[in-house]
Design a protein that fits this description.
There is one protein chain. The chain has 296 residues and is mostly helical. 46% of the residues lie in helices and 2% in strands. It has a two-stranded antiparallel sheet. α11 crosses α13 and α13 runs antiparallel to α14. The model is unreliable at 292-296 (pLDDT under 50).
C-alpha cells in the first residue's frame, strides 16, 4: 500500500507550512489567517485568469501560493506540475529548485511509518483546517513526529495491545506532547526505556514526568558532561550510528563532533542510566545484563 503524504493528509486539508521557503524564524501562518485568506483568493484568481507577472518572491509572501480547490479549503502551489498538466512553473518565483526539493523533517519521519501507523497518528489532526494543520503550534502531529518514525511505530504497537486510540496514547504517555521536552534530544532514552517496559501494563507509570527529571539529574550528578578537543574529530552526522544516537549527542549533549568509539561508549552509559531511572538495585542490574537493547 502506498504511503500517505503529510502535505495532503485529508481530502480537504493540505500542509503549506514550508511555503514560501524563505520565511523568517518563528513565523506561523495562523498569526495571519485573515490577510492570507484574502491573498490566497487573489492569487488563485490572478493565475486562473493568466494574469501572471513572473518575479522573485521576497519575505514570507509568495504570489503563487493560493487555494487549489473551488471550496477554498486546500492551499498549495499554483505553479506545481500537478496543477499545470505536468509542466513545472515554479522556476518563475526564483526558488523553483528549492520549492521542488525541500521536505520537512516531520514529513520524512511520517513517510517512515507503516500505513497502519500513518492512519493511527493522523487521527490527532483530523478536522484541522489547512491553516491549523500547517501550524507547528496548533497541529499536535508536527510535534509528535519529531519523536521519529521508529519510536512512533513502537508506541502505536503498545497502544494497539491496550486498545488505545491515538488520543488516549498521548494522554496516557503525556511526555509525547510536552512542550518543554525536545523529542529529538529524548528519543533515544525513551527508545531504550520502551525496549524494557513496553510489555508492562503500567508502561505510562515508568515513563511519567519523574523519569525525565531523574535521568537529567543522574546525567549531571554522575558527571557525564562531554568536554573535548573537536578539531580533529568527525561531525556526528557522518558517524555510522543510528539517527537516535546522533540526535541524542547533538540535541541532548549539544556536541557537534565525536569519534565513533566515544559515541558507542556514550550509548552504553545512557543504557545504564535509563535502567537506573526505571528500576533500582538488583532488578536493574539483571535487566541491563540481559542486553535487551537495539544494537547498532
Amino acid at each position: 500500500m502506498n504511503s500517505l503524504n503529510l502535505c495532503t493528509p485529508f481530502d480537504d486539508t493540505s500542509c503549506f507550512r514550508c511555503c514560501p521557503p524563505i520565511r523568517p524564524s518563528g513565523y506561523d501562518h495562523i498569526d495571519y489567517i485573515s490577510s492570507l485568506k484574502r491573498e490566497f483568493r487573489e492569487n488563485r484568481n490572478r493565475i486562473s485568469s493568466r494574469k501572471i507577472l513572473p518575479r522573485p518572491i521576497v519575505g514570507f509572501w509568495c504570489w503563487a501560493l493560493g487555494y487549489i480547490d473551488d471550496h477554498f479549503k486546500t492551499i498549495g502551489c499554483l505553479l506545481h506540475p500537478a496543477r499545470n498538466r505536468g509542466v513545472d512553473l515554479r522556476f518563475l518565483t526564483g526558488y523553483g529548485a528549492k520549492c521542488a526539493r525541500e521536505i520537512c523533517y516531520e514529513a520524512r519521519e511520517f513517510l517512515k511509518l507503516s500505513k497502519k501507523s500513518q492512519l493511527f497518528w493522523l487521527e490527532l489532526a483530523r478536522g484541522l483546517s489547512s491553516f491549523y494543520f500547517s501550524s507547528p503550534r496548533a497541529n499536535p502531529l508536527l510535534h509528535l513526529l519529531r519523536w521519529g518514525g521508529s519510536l512512533l511505530e513502537v508506541i502505536r504497537d503498545v497502544a494497539d495491545r491496550r486498545f488505545w486510540t491515538a488520543t488516549e496514547a498521548v494522554w496516557r504517555l503525556e511526555f509525547l506532547l510536552r512542550a518543554d521536552l525536545n523529542p529529538r534530544a529524548w528519543k533515544l532514552p525513551v527508545e531504550i526505556a520502551l525496549a524494557v517496559v513496553s510489555d508492562r501494563e503500567d508502561v505510562e507509570v515508568f515513563l511519567g514526568s519523574d523519569f525525565f527529571f531523574r535521568l537529567t539529574q543522574l546525567w549531571i550528578d554522575k558527571g557525564y558532561g562531554v568536554s573535548m578537543n573537536y578539531e580533529e574529530m568527525p561531525y556526528v552526522h557522518f558517524l555510522s550510528i543510528d539517527d537516535s544516537l546522533k540526535d541524542f549527542i547533538k540535541f541532548f549533549l549539544g556536541v557537534p563532533k565525536m569519534t565513533l568509539n566515544q559515541a558507542l561508549e556514550l550509548r552504553e552509559i545512557l543504557k545504564k542510566i535509563v535502567i537506573e531511572c526505571l528500576f533500582e538495585g538488583d532488578e536493574g542490574k539483571k535487566i541491563y545484563h540481559k542486553d535487551l537493547w537495539m544494537q547498532g
